[in-house]
Amino acid sequence: MRIIRSVSEIQEWSSAERRAGKSIGFVPTMGALHLGHAELFRRSVAENQRTVVSIFVNSLQFNNASDLEAYPRQLEQDLLIAERENIDVLFVPNPEEMYPEGFSSIISVGSIAKNMEGLHRPGHFDGVATVVVKLLNAVAPTGSYFGEKDFQQVAVIRQVVRDLNISCEIVSVPTVRDEYGLALSSRNARLTPDQLAQAPQIYVLLDEITKMSRTTKMSSRTIQEHFTNGIESSTAGTVEYIEIVDSLTLNPIATTYEGTTICVAVWFDDVRLIDNVSI
Ligand code: AMP
């Protein structure tokens, strides 16, 4: 596995590979790799002749300085995981490489980025869109892989890629969960043992709601109450939002139908977890 730290070097590597007719799959991450990331790597490795993974904790997408500070960093372990997953290139730029002095362009995304994560984390999707476009321009992949766990993020990236004529296929990969249903996340490492035992309740409730709404149409209000009461009566978590949206437009809807997604954000102390299910 080759480790590349500069934008110019990855651009040279990528042009040479494309000239040689190789397809390139790309998986952007913020590190602290787990089996959810590994699933994206495996899809990319299976579908492309070369796979690039980037590890970059993107300060631009953190709206909260202490969250950025506390974000887990474990490069040594990440190197071993990437190596084991047969990644060809690990792109690990430092902050000065991505945002050198004088950097001043930000991509601002329209309505699809305005509710849910966009509302509760002001500036988050501008940061995500900016870094993803920079990374796609650096790696110039054939396809790029994103997790459905970050449901709105995938929608935002599809919008940006379409709007800015970036020639790259966006592939979304289903959420990987632990044996109790908790969506794997780098932030899970910050949960206490008690919180870790309670957090699977997020998915237990979402799964229950999905099953109920398959047989009867449910109003968004009923779903919101069921979820919020379920979390707040049986765990120490606090619900930041539960939104029931159209899976394509991400606009809020009043009653469920096929093609609806339920998105949630729940705080356990100072750790914020997100999850979603599609009906
Ligand atoms: P992150 O390092 O958290 O920025 O995540 C990098 C990529 O991995 C994003 O596309 C995430 O959506 C994806 N990802 C994170 N957790 C999971 C998971 N549990 N299952 C599938 N994909 C995931």
Topology of helices and strands:
Elements: E1 2-4, H1 7-19, E2 24-29, H2 35-47, E3 50-55, H3 65-70, H4 75-84, E4 89-91, H5 95-98, H6 117-120, H7 124-139, E5 143-147, H8 151-163, E6 169-173, H9 193-198, H10 201-215, H11 220-234, E7 238-246, E8 260-268, E9 271-278
Parallel strand pairs: 1-4, 2-3, 2-5, 3-4, 5-6
Antiparallel strand pairs: 7-8, 8-9
Helix pairs in contact: 7-8, 10-11
This protein binds adenosine monophosphate.
Question: What would you note in describing this structure?
Answer:
With 279 residues, the chain is α/β, with parallel strands linked by helices. It folds into 2 domains: 2-173, Rossmann fold (3-Layer(aba) Sandwich), CATH 3.40.50; 186-278, Pantoate-beta-alanine ligase, C-terminal domain (Pantoate--beta-alanine Ligase, Chain: A,domain 2), CATH 3.30.1300. The protein is 41% helix and 19% strand. Helix 7 crosses helix 8 and helix 10 (201-215) runs antiparallel to helix 11 (220-234). Residues 29-30, 36-37, 39-40, 146-147, 149-150, 173, 175-176, 183-186 line the site of adenosine monophosphate.
